[in-house]
Amino acid sequence: CSASGAGTGTSDTARANARILADDASHVAMLLNLLEETDFYVRYHTIQLLTRLLEHFGEKLCSTIANTEMGVLRLMDMLSDRREIIRNEILLLLVSLTKGDGGTSGLEVHKIVAFEGGFDRLLDIVVAESLVDGSIIVQDSLYVANNLLRENPSNQKFFVEMGCAERLASLLTLTTRQILRLNERSVIAVSLALETAQHVLSSELPAASAAFGKAAIITSLVSLASTTHSSTGVRARALQVLSMCMRGRTEVQAEVGMALVSAPWYPPQVAERITAATSGVSDRANTADTDANEGPALVRILCVALYSAEEAERRAAIECLRAFVVENDEGQLHLAALAVTPPPTETESALSFGRELLHALAPQRGAESASIRAMRWYACRALECIIADSSAAKEIALRGSVGD
Predict the structure, then answer these.
(1) What span, in angstroms and rounded, lies between the C-alpha atoms of 119 and 115?
(2) How far is 241 from 208, CA to CA, in rounded Å?
(3) What whole-number distance in Å separates Cα of residue 245 and Cα of residue 197?
(4) Is the pTM here over 0.90, yes or no?
(5) In 210-316, where do the E strands start and end?
């Protein structure tokens, strides 16, 4: 089917031959039957041919595969092939087969893949290869999983019922050391896994929420959201997942309220104030040690909203604060009290929720830059979250003052 580097006539001939293969169900069935052969080259070239046919005649071939007895199952069996090249090729084929342009037949394929143990097989690959390694095999496995779950309530429910939500939450429970070692490949893989979590949590099934409501995963999500060792996409997605975990769930909100995270990131503005407010800390080595100290999760989230250079992160952080106060009167009043009466500077932590919020709201000396105005805008949005739909929180906020 490939005509790379060939003239128009050759390309047209190749497409005509591809159409002959794709239009005849017996030809497609023959190719699928060839996958039963264990010879490397037979499997390799058969998978490549099916992939090329999908690229040109996706909906037609998807329909034929769905209607061929054992057709999808034969493709799934290739995931058990121990030869890495075969696994790579079948994953690429499954990415094409499940990407969503197969119409009704595509939905049927999604259902068959899921009910034939597709989720467990894909997660087995991710576990075996390691999520934080971020290999192409891991990325392609997660692409397929996301294709199967995207806007598909039936598959989302099946994913949760098969216990896969717990496995996914476990994969995303990363240590600080693992987060520090994220590289370009692993950042892509973690972002894809977070997308998978978003699809699963969108089902709003109690079991899905419970899987992502434990202290370890909450700490991991906050750390991912506030470290410079992940990309903007990862930080924003981590905050979005955290918001979905918290909304209306008091036990998760309580976990977030108590969570302490060790993330090696403070915005420069905050780092300068920490250094100035901490007596005896004047050299860079001691400042670095201060940066590594644990900090309250809510303060980290607020700092992302106030100081991040990326709009997507700031919006996600605000949504996270909003999710924290939904049906959480105690937490909402606590944040309102912190905003009015932050702890004194000389306390052991120079970084507090109330102090950062009030600093952002206070008038700045001299001309204000665009970044200062943006900081104040997001500070106002954070304050709006704190007092929203709560007369008691509004009364507390009115007792406070901003600036001198």
Answers:
(1) 9
(2) 12
(3) 10
(4) no
(5) 260-261, 295-296
In this predicted structure, what is the pLDDT of residue 350? 52
Adjacent-strand bridge partners of 296: 260
CA distance 398 to 240: 30
Spatial CB neighbours of 398, under 8 Å, sequence gap ≥ 6: none
The one-letter code for the residue type at 373 is: R
Tokens of 290: 């201060």
Structure tokens at 346: 């000389």
8-state DSSP, 132: G
Q: List % helix, strand, coil for the chain (3-state, nearest 5).
A: 70, 0, 25
Tokens of 230: 């992940």
What single string gives the DSSP state of each residue in 133-166? G--HHHHHHHHHHHHHHTT-HHHHHHHHHTTHHH
Q: Alpha-carbon torsion 114, 116, 120, 123, what sign?
A: negative
Q: How far is CA 260 from CA 58, 292, 294, in A?
A: 49, 12, 6
Q: Mind giving me the DSSP string for 316-376?
A: HHHHHHHHHHTT-HHHHHHHHHHHHSPPPTTSS-S--HHHHHHHHHSPPSSSPPHHHHHHH
Q: Using H for helix, E for strand and C for coil, what is the string for 263-283?
A: CCCCCHHHHHHHHHHCCCCCC
Residue 282 has pLDDT above 50, yes or no: no
Tell whether the model's pLDDT for residue 278 goes beyond 60: no
Any idea how long the chain is? 404
Are 100 and 149 contacting, i.e. CB atoms less than 8 angstroms apart? no
